[in-house]
Amino acid sequence: MSEYTECPECGNSSIKMRVQEAWSADFSVKTGKCLNRSYLEPTFFQYICKCGWVGENNVNGFKDNEEEEEL
Question: DSSP string of 2-68?
Answer without folding.
Answer: -S-SS-TTT--S--EEEEEEEEEEEE-TTT--EEEEEEEEEEEEEEE-TTS-BPPPEETTEETT-PP
